[in-house]
Amino acid sequence: MAKPLVAIVGRPNVGKSTFFNKMAGRRISIVEDIPGVTRDRVYCDVEWMGRRFSMVDTGGLDMRSEDVLLSQMRRQAEIAMDTADVICFFCDGRTGMTPDDADIANYLRKTHKPLILVVNKMDHAGLNDQLYEYYNLGLGDPMAISATNMLGLGDLLEAIVKQLPPPDEDEQEEEEHVIQLALVGRPNVGKSSLANKLLRQERTMVSDIPGTTRDAIDTLFVDDDGTKFNIIDTAGMRKKKAVEDESLERYSVLRSIAAIDRCDVALLLIDAQVGVTEQDTKVAGLILNAGKAVIVVVNKWDAIEKDTNTMETMRKKILSDLKFMSYAPVLFLSALTGQRTNQVLGAVKEAYAQYSKRIATGVLNEALADAQISLQPPMSGGRRLKIYYATQQSVCPPTFVLFINHEELMHFAYQRYLENSFRKSFGFEGTPIRFILREKQQNNN
Questions:
Q1: Which residues contact 57 (CB under 8 A, 6 or more apart)?
Q2: Torsions phi, psi of 56, nearest 5?
Q3: Each residue's pLDDT tens digit, 334-377
Q4: What is residue 308's predicted lDDT score, i.e. its pLDDT?
Q5: Could you give the strand order of the β-sheet that contains 265-271, starting from the edge strand earlier in sequence?
């Protein structure tokens, strides 16, 4: 099931994104001393005191402005607060309390959500007097922190954990037992219809109007064999030009990208009547860059006139159009009639098995040796690439470390050859493979 959600809110430029980036451990949100830099919400996962939860950074709240951009930012922050289990209200200890802080506090009281009042930028003892005026907001004891200097962050995280809802049985289970399955693609390709077929119920709204699904909808589902899935039905991803003036549409695209980021297997739905479009290619690129397993689902197959070669011809055309994803299995089905939809979950289980497959080091190096015998590593500048050995570093996706003499000697074409050789030896259908190159210095290399 979904982790508890903590929303970080406050007026612009109070240090929300700085705190968020410290929690994420990397620079996710853009941090600048310009109000309104963070316009959309950004998510990361946090673990503290044995509890896992998601954190969402939001754009600055301006409760009075009628500016279109600020209104959109306010709307997205409001959505974050509506879905949050705990809200952290950030204020600026350097500037002191402002009328905007009071406006936000009045709004937050109406949410009836657990609130933590955070006074940021409390970098030295001389600012302590600033803390007391925040009691006037009537939100309880303010917590002093400095996100930049990492002061008080542990106390704040402990306070957050105390406010989280108690863990349920699903949250306590090992996450790998639940296959995270995201349905992604352009609007109106049948994602919600397919989700309903897989779930065997009318879980999501289905309409011929593009954009009916505004959010990413999570549904836990247990197959007949006991396999657990979390099925994520997402809003369609439109071209960027089509969403520039629609804040909710932009939000839908962001949630779709977030769904790809947290899934194990992505079902990329293609309209059989249209074929692969530029937008389909971009979505496929997002799946590849995120390192997720993928199945290409050609929907609306019932609407296509066929002969004996139609399916194979279209399969080759799709994989040609998505040539960077030639390892993806392709399913042809109709979510409307149910034709072949019973094959989807079996294909997902197999894709996940490949995605999480681990190869023993000895067997891996036998395959590597065979590959080098079949095609010798390339030479450049009088030096030949030497690959000493390989080991699998991780799964999801399968990631291999190659110990070599000189990284610059590894041509892209030879790395692609090794990938294809590994696929012939071990399968890996439906999952990307990643290589990490490490130079292993030896004498006379």
A1: 8, 16, 17, 20, 28, 29, 38, 41, 42, 43
A2: -125, 125
A3: 999 999 999 999 999 999 999 999 999 999 999 999 999 999 99
A4: 86
A5: 217-222, 228-233, 178-185, 265-271, 293-299, 330-332
Candidates 3.30.300.20, 2.60.120.890, 1.10.150.20, 3.30.420.200; CATH matching 361-439:
3.30.300.20
Instruction: Please say if the pLDDT value at position 293 is more than 80.
Output: yes
CA 365 to chain CA centroid, nearest Å: 33
CA gap 277, 257 in Å, rounded: 18
Query: What proportions of the chain, in percent to the nearest 5, are helix, strand and coil?
Result: 40, 20, 40
Question: Is 59:36 a contact under the CB 8 Å cutoff?
Answer: yes
- Domain 5-163 has what CATH class? alpha beta
Question: Can you identify the CATH homologous superfamily of domain 174-355?
Answer: P-loop containing nucleotide triphosphate hydrolases (3.40.50.300)
Q: How confident is the model at residue 67 (pLDDT cuts 50, 70, 90)?
A: low
State the Cα–Cα distance between residues 260 and 290, nearest whole angstrom.
7
For the chain, what are the domain ranges? 5-163, 174-355, 361-439
Q: Is there a shared CATH topology between the 5-163 domain and the 361-439 domain?
A: no
